[in-house]
Predict the structure.
Amino acid sequence: MSENCTKLAPYAAHPDDSHGRQHTEERPTYRTEYQRDRDRIVHSGAFRRLEYKTQVFVNHEGDMFRTRLTHSIEVAQIGRSVARVLLLNEDLIEAIALAHDLGHTPFGHAGQDALNSCMQEYGGFEHNLQSLRVVDQLEARYADFSGLNLTFETREGILKHCSKKDARELGALGERFFTSTQPSLEAQLANLADEIAYNNHDVDDGLRADLITLDQLSEVELFRYHVDTVNKSYPGLNPRRAIHETIRRMINEQVSDLIKNSRDNISHCQPESIEAVRQQKNRLICFSPQMQQKNRDMKQFLHHHLYRHYRVQRMSGKATRLVSDLFNTFMDDPSTLPPEQLQHLKTLQQSRAQMGRARAVADYIAGMTDRYAILEHERLFNPTALT
Ligand code: MG
């Protein structure tokens, strides 16, 4: 066993027991397999592009809002903190967290919905599957294989959910969607670290953008309890600091609940290995029922007041039109694609003509950052713009 694995619990993912990579490689000399995965993700082009992709707010609205890059780093931070306490594999959770959003389109959910509806006749578009596609096929950096050739466990964590139809095409990776088995505890944790990160930073960004107010937020128990405590303990505190103090306390409450509840689940079931974790009927990494309810309330609030705010809806409308314009233009006339993308299209078309064309166009659009998509649209639709 590698020396830097000694602090792992038996139920954690041990790199020496990994189900391995799609293309066999020699083991790394100084790192574990999951450290190598994490490092490959950090060096990928798709990872760098996360800096200019947003979830709710578009980059040009300000430099203070989360991007998909800072979101992914927050997910990794939360995941690692919990993993260390539960003696799970920090390198694996970090790899999963940093890769989990690689397949996201520009313009967040509006972009994904638009691309999915463009792709209806061609198998649809799903960001989760696209993240897997990025690490399995699209990154072109290594001499011996396409993609990043990551371990099974990192890929398993990236594939959060999947339809049975898609799972059928994924071989061993898709099996758990038929057998109702569980992914590793690190994968389960990445999922919830994602939820904690976005619920909290969307509150912060929503307040900063003046889309939601403190008054409105006081409807939500999770927020109200902490904002009241902060206001009582620090009367007259600068409002921005008070918001930050409140949010850090909310994160702390959620993380503490997750640790405590998951630890109880683990000690109740006593799984002796990652395989025993996979055979469990239920997930062991989860919030208490009380915290699940608080989170549901917060999510509902955000859906209602933030994600459906008219200013967010306007941006979504623009994104939807822009993504469909790009898709239709490239589908109608692939000769407008840049050479590298045209080559990708020709390769995919060899087996399935229209399907391959659509998938190549979707790969190109999904890889775009917000600002690149805006620029590309300008180059295609504005006759005075440089092409
Ligand atoms: Mg995410």
Remarks:
- Residues 71, 100-101, 194, 198 surround magnesium ion (CB under 6 Å).
- The first helix runs from residue 33 to 42.
- The two ends are 55 Å apart (CA to CA).
